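Entry:
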Amino acid sequence: GRAAALRARMEERLLAARFRHINQQLYTSSSREAAQLFRDDPEAFQIYHRGFTQQVERWPENPVQRIVRALRRRPSSLVVADFGCGDCKLAKSIKNRVHSFDLVPLSPQVTVCDMAKVPLADETVDVAVFCLALMGTNLQEILEEANRVLKPRGTLMVAEVASRFEDMRAFMSAMAQLGFKSVSKDLSSAFFHLLEFSKTGSPRGRPVPGLRLRPCLYKRR
């Protein structure tokens, strides 16, 4: 009755508060620290993923569906690396060989690792994907890792929350310094931006200040 409903509401609020706290930690720590956080507290990732999924479900479209459609138009022989794959929606939706990387295995297909140190040889991937996954204080290191595993002229696809981009021009300039040339920008959604790059060469090997994205912090409801 009423007591059970009240208890359920309280539990929901506690989970929401915990999600916001974990989310904030992920944006203010490096990928190594995030990996350690979830090793120490595996339940935290379940809470984070559940809260994250609830947020994205409020959007008119999930950006992973856009990436799925784009990849289905290309040869299924292309090898894909999905950085921050979550529940492997991408791997389950396309015929390509997909290396699915994340900090915790929500699915048996996931390879658990730090996104700045994935277990792939140099230049072995045709497409690298970051779908709502550019988190952490070491973004440059993570994108340099994507560059390392991509073949020359390989494709990098980035879908990210629109409000995180404070200076798109500076971000694109930073990406160029990391060896990525802009191929297309889809800024039509109010919720997320979809960017595609082509690998033109190796990163220049120095700090890239324009690579800043605002943390995506969720308000209390």
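Strands lie at 80-83, 98-102, 110-112, 125-131, 150-161, 180-186, 192-199.
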